[in-house]
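for the writeup, i need someone to sanity check this before i put it in the appendix. the sequnce is what the collaborator sent (i think, or maybe the updated version? ugh). structure was predicted straight from it, no edits. if anything looks off just tell me and ill rerun, i have time this weekend
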Amino acid sequence: MHLEKDRWSWPTNLKLDISKYYLLATCLSKTSKEFEKNLTEWKRLQDFEELDYESLRMIPRLSRLVEQFQVLDENQPRYQGIYKKSWVLNLSYISEVRNLFSELQQKKLPFIVKGNLSFANHYYKEIGVLKSTGTEIVVRRKEVLRVVTILEKNGYFSKGRFSKFSSIRILAGGRVNFVGKSGCTIQVSLHCFPFHTVVSSETMLKNNTQTVEWKDLKVQILIPELELLRLLLVGISGQRTPQLQWIMDSNILLEKEGDGFDWNLFKELTIQHDVPLLAGIGLEYMQKMGVSTIPTTIINELKSKSTFYSRIVFNSMKRRTKLGVILRFIIVLKYAIFSR
C-alpha cells in the first residue's frame, strides 16, 4: 500500500503512530493477499506485549479476519483469547440489561440504544467483535427522573462526588454512567453525539431511529445515516490519542448498507445538526485511510457548507487552548437553551 505523507496528519493535529496505521489497514483489508501483507508489516512494527488500549480494541476484529482469510499467525490463539473474553462479557451485559430495557418499554419510556454492543449486534452480527463495558441509552428530557429511578431500582448507581445529582447532571446535558453489581455500565444522556447539537432527543426518537432485534427484544437504534454521522464526530471529537475503531466501524456500516445508504439524507442531517464541516473532514480522512466507498463529491459539498458554529467546534478541538474550552462551554450553553 502506498503511504502518502498526509496520511499521518490527524484532523485535530494528533500524531498517528505508523503501527496503528497498519493495524487499521489490516482490519480494512479486502483480500487475503492485502490482509497478509498489512498484518506482516504491523507485526514487524508492533510488539504484541506493548499494545495500547486503542490497539487492543481492534484485536477481536483482527481475530475474526485471520480466520476468514485463513492466514497462519502464531499470535492467533492470543487474538482468539481476547475475542472470546469480549464475547462472554458482552453476552452477559446483554442478558443483564435486557430486563431493564423490557421494564422501560413496559413503562412506555422510549429510548435509543447506541454504543459498541448495539453496533456489533446489528452491523457486525457478532457481539464479541467490539470490546465493551456496557451500553448507552439516549432518553427524553421530560422522562429523565423516571428512567433514573428505574435504573436505581434495578441496582444501577452512579459513582463519584456528585452521584446524588445524577438526574440534574443529565438534564444539564451531561452523560452519567450507572454501574451495576457485575460491572456492567449504562451511560444515560439526552444526546447521541460526543458534543451537543440543537437537535433534541425527542426529535431523534420521532424521526431518526429504526427498530431492530436485540436478542428477543425490539429496541430503537439510530438510522444508518445518523449512526455514520455519530461515528465521524466521535472520531474527530478532540481525543488525546487518535482513535481507530470509528473508521473500521464506519467502513462496516457503509459495506452493509451498500447502495441503500442515502447520501442526500446524510447531507441533510449534517446541516440539521450544524456539523457539515466536521462530517466532511471525517469522511475525507476515512478516504485517505483506505475506505473507498465514499463519494468525493459528498466530501466537497459538505466542506463547502462550513458554518460559523462548526468552525468553532473544529477549532476548539484542533487548538486545545483556553479559548477552546470557553467555546466548548458556549456550545453546551447553546444546547441547554435551545434543545427542548
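The beta strands are 111-114, 134-139, 176-179, 185-189, 209-214, 217-222. The radius of gyration is 20 Å.
thx in advance!!
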